[in-house]
Amino acid sequence: MIPFKKYIQDIKPYEPGKPIKELQREYGIRSVIKLASNENPLGPSGKAISAMRKAIREVHLYPEGSCYYLLTRLSKELDLDPAHLIFGNGSNEIIELLARGFLSEGDEVISSEMTFLVYPILSQVCGAKFKAVPMKDYRYDIEGILRAITPKTKLIFIANPNNPTGTYVTAGEVEDFLSKVPENVVVCFDEAYVDFVEAEDFPKMLAYVKAGRPNVVVLRTFSKAFGLAGLRIGYGAASKEMVDYLHKVRQPFNVNSVAQAAVVAALDDSFFLWRTKWLVVRGRKYFYRKLKRLGLEYLPSQANFILIHMKTDGQEVYQYLLRQGMIVRPMVAYKLPDWIRITIGRRSQNAQLIRLLKAYLSEKV
Ligand SMILES: Cc1ncc(COP(=O)(O)O)c(C=O)c1O
Description:
The protein contains 14 helices and 13 strands. It is an alpha/beta fold. The protein is globular and about 60 Å long.
């Protein structure tokens, strides 16, 4: 008998958004728009592309295990000592390092329901129990999370802004929360979408790291605003002690050389970042206006996506849109069967999605 672990066999694998090529193959459609995985519709920055071209010539060599140049560049960008930073193969890898570093069978992890599905998966891989606290008005219930803490709690995940709701936890809520959380519980603030935030009461989490909070870890990624999802690179910011500890868990060459070079260059392309944020901010407003006109409810979002209440089977809407060459995200896995999540795209892509939703609704009546 192969010693499969029951708690691993019980895991429901993560289902990513449908790739464009898969839809082209399956449906024989050539023109496909993907607004499903919160990617950057502008592609990567030109500066990053040039840096990648150069870096490719050296892929016969192992990457720098310490990410030296990237570490120096990012440390300057964030005004944070390099010892506070650790890079990962996507910010997903930092989630994994935290799980492997802190969890054993029987431990508990707390987060919210309707949040990033990688938290329960990576907790379960380590045999930990994942507690999903119900949301309040589609927002993290911070008080509820505090009440759920037990002596077995090792890790808390807070996606801020949250995926898939786009809602956020305020600076005041975080301040109060951190004053009450026991110091032996690691709290991970996942800021994958922080570059799209406009809310003025959004917390400044790096200040907690700078102030030396030992149990706070902040995650960021280059997959979203920086348009580098395919390279798999993100980072964690935390106390020096925490970063040293997580380095012991990672593989020696966990971040590839092309990704390292691309991010160094992308950090210099502030115009690209500005264009991306502008596209998202303008796109959010466009969708709010059009969705209201279509009579559809949505959650105001601080991220580059919007959750839309279709008031009907979201899977059916998803399938309808697929047949028209438009990939969005159905929300069944998040226990939101009547909703779909759409990524803000380019202006013409957004308009096409609105046209298709309008056509769907008129066919329904
Ligand atoms: C909340 C959240 N955290 C982390 C990630 C993963 O990002 P990365 O591509 O850096 O692994 C995502 C990606 O969808 C996300 O939505």
